[in-house]
Amino acid sequence: MLPTMEQDERESALKELRTIPIVGEKVAEPLYMLGIRSVKELIGRSPEDMYGELRTMKGYYVEPCILNQLKVAVSMAAKMK
After folding, report:
1. 25 SS3 class
2. Rg (CA), the chain
3. Cβ partners under 8 Å of residue 14, min gap 6
4. pTM for this one?
5. 15 to 11, 25, 31, 38, 67: CA distances (angstroms)
6. What is the domain count for the chain?
7. SS3 content of the chain, % helix, strand, coil (to 5)
8. Which of 15, 22, 30, 33 has its CA 20 to 30 A from that of 63?
9. Long-range contacts of 65-73 (CB under 8 A, 24+ apart)
């Protein structure tokens, strides 16, 4: 279990990421795992690179549909700035 401060930071980041249309828990969590903590940090990222990085994480299965969701999330994040 994460210490309270880390848990609060995680929840805050996930909440912000979920403000992006299409981003629910199933997309916010992988973004967090990639070190993305805000909408601003997602702007300009390569969905293909993020998908590839997720696929190489040991013990983490990435569904193929995540790539399309990452593409839309990056596009929507750019529109939100």
Report:
1. helix
2. 12
3. 25, 28, 29, 32
4. 0.88
5. 6, 9, 12, 9, 21
6. 1
7. 65, 0, 35
8. 15
9. 66/26, 66/27, 66/30, 69/22, 69/23, 69/26, 69/27, 70/27, 71/47, 72/21, 72/22, 73/20, 73/22, 73/23, 73/27, 73/31, 73/42, 73/47
Q: Identify the domain containing residue 51 by its residue range.
A: 4-80
Name the token pair of 6: 């880390």
Q: Using the predicted structure, report yes or no on whether residue 3 has a pLDDT greater than 80.
A: no
**Torsion of the alpha carbons at 30, 36, 39 and 44, rounded to the nearest 10:** -100
The average pLDDT across 55-69 equals: 91
Binning pLDDT at 50, 70 and 90, where does residue 1 land?
Answer: low
Identity at 51, one-letter amino acid code: Y
CATH code: domain of residue 24: 1.10.150
DSSP state of 81: -
